[in-house]
Specification:
mainly alpha; 66% helix; Coq4; Ubiquinone biosynthesis protein; ubiquinone
């Protein structure tokens, strides 16, 4: 029997939420917090039309139209080590350089993980919404730098995904944050991790909209000045939870 040809992926059509796919991916992620591919599967399963909404919002903020018009590919820009090396110590770019050196992460590495997780068509396609999806992916590590949430620990990632949910409205972020917070209560018997995740969400709500930033300019800004301008608060509950996990001899959950 002949089968109907599969239609090519169209970023302009909101994706239906796939709760079964998201739950399966969350289970794998909670079993292995370093399995980053599952994060992208959850995002694709649950975020629906969030990317479209955020792109349309970008067009309404000062300078956002210019960013959308030029469509800078941040994975490529952030992988230019000579450019990154040009930022002074104490700037966002200088702090990002230290982040790269300390973790061994890279913008292109994260892009490759996303392609492995959901295939090249979902993000590589030439479409404004697909560009916005790549932008959200590529600024993730810069948000680690701006917020102070470490990328190489489960607590820091959980706090940043809660922050990201507040910033973007992406349900996938909330799903991951809730799963990690609930697991932390079961593992530790304490609420410190949970409180840090809630703090991450609150800080994301009160901060300026980071999607609307010109990141080429932002990287040259002194990091403490950038945090003040963007109203990114000191993550006190996060520091408390870090100390609590360390005292219990836990590096993750």
């Amino acid at each position: 029997m002949a089968t109907q040809a599969q239609q090519p992926f169209n970023p302009g059509i909101p994706m239906k939420r796939e709760w079964g796919t998201a739950l399966s991916a969350l289970r794998r992620l909670l079993a292995n917090g370093d399995d980053t591919e599952q994060v992208f599967r959850i995002m694709r399963a649950l975020n629906g039309d969030v990317t479209q909404k955020n792109y349309r919002k970008l067009l309404t903020v000062p300078g956002g139209g210019k960013l959308a018009y030029h469509r800078l590919e941040l994975a490529e820009r952030l992988s230019d080590r000579s450019w990154i090396d040009g930022f002074a110590e104490g700037t966002v770019g200088g702090t990002y350089r230290s982040f790269l050196d300390a973790t061994g992460y890279s913008a292109k590495g994260l892009a490759e993980v996303s392609i492995n997780a959901i295939g090249p068509d979902a993000l590589a396609i030439e479409h404004p919404y697909a560009w916005m999806g790549r932008r959200e992916r590529d600024i993730h590590d810069l948000w680690h730098v701006l917020t102070g949430y470490k990328a190489d620990e489960h607590l820091g990632e959980a706090c940043l995904v809660a922050f990201s949910y507040a910033q973007t409205g992406g349900l996938g972020w909330a799903f991951i944050a809730a799963g990690a917070a609930l697991k932390s209560i079961r593992i530790t018997g304490k609420l410190d991790f949970f409180r840090a995740v809630i703090e991450g969400y609150r800080h994301g709500k009160q901060a300026g909209w980071l999607h609307g930033e010109d990141y080429e300019m932002l990287l040259a800004e002194p990091i403490e000045a950038a945090r003040r301008r963007l109203n990114i608060a000191e993550p006190r509950a996060y520091r408390t939870a870090q100390a609590s996990l360390a005292a219990a001899g836990l590096s993750g959950i």
